[in-house]
Amino acid sequence: MAVHPYSPAGLDLPGYVPQRLSQLEIVGPYLGTSLFVLLAVWLLSGNTSRIPTRPYISSAISSRLWFAGRCSRLSKVDRLLMCWWAFTGLTHLVVEGSFVFTPDFFSKENPSYFDESMKEYSKGDSRYVARDTATVTVEAITVLLEGPGSLLAFYAIASRKSYSHILQFTVCLGQLYGCIVYFATAYLDGFNFWASPFYFWAYFVGANSSWVVIPLLIARRSWKKICAAIHQTEKVKTK
């Protein structure tokens, strides 16, 4: 049986290749890239009244003007929501997608950054490295449905689509359902999948808490917007 840092110690991982990147080398780039995405979306969705529109401007600037022109009248709340949907959509598709479609990530001789990141995260939940059926299923649904749904929500807010709040509410319900299944199955299966209390709080709890708190807040907001729109429509009909 290969020696590994995961819990339980008797977990069988045939061909396990030890992690090569340090925690800092994994978490640092992820946080940096996430911050870049958040800042880029926030800045591009802001007011562009100072940017000149000339027929000879580059295509890159033209794309920025087109994007920002659509978003220039958005509220700060909507811009923050765009930041969230861009971040969560890319996380679902890129990070979680690499886990779903790379079942042998823990045994690859030449692992990628994403392989190493899943080895690191598995210290907080060894069901990932063990390819637990329930975990893989929840992640696959997240990648295939919630990832594209999140990016569509980003587009819907930017373009002020009528289905924006219905879509946001639906994706939030999917994320909350996934978290409930994720935590419930961990409890039912013994609640002993982390290498130490640090990894429990930092990865199992901390890394997942955003997908509980933020979807709850967004779902509540969207529900109110939907109810207000329906009420207004019914009020107009009764006149």
From the structure above, extract its key features.
239 residues, mainly alpha, 7 helices, single chain
Structure description:
The chain has 239 residues and is mostly helical. The protein contains 7 helices and no strands. The longest helix has 41 residues, at 197-237. It starts with 22 loop residues before the first helix and ends with a helix. Mean pLDDT is 91; it is low at 48-53.
Describe the secondary-structure layout:
Layout lengths: L22 H22 L14 H13 L4 H25 L12 H9 L11 H27 L4 H25 L8 H41 L2
CA distance, first residue to last residue: 75 Å
Mean pLDDT: 91
Shape: elongated
Report low-confidence residues grouped into runs of 5 or more. 48-53
The tally of beta strands, per DSSP, is 0
Number of distinct helices: 7
| Major sheet size, sense and barrel closure | none
Q: Kindly estimate the percentage of residues that lie in beta strands according to DSSP.
A: under 5%
Encode the helix/strand succession as letters. Answer: HHHHHHH
Structural class: mainly alpha
For the CA atoms, what is the radius of gyration? 21 Å
Secondary structure: helix percent: 55-70%
Short description:
The chain is mainly alpha-helical.
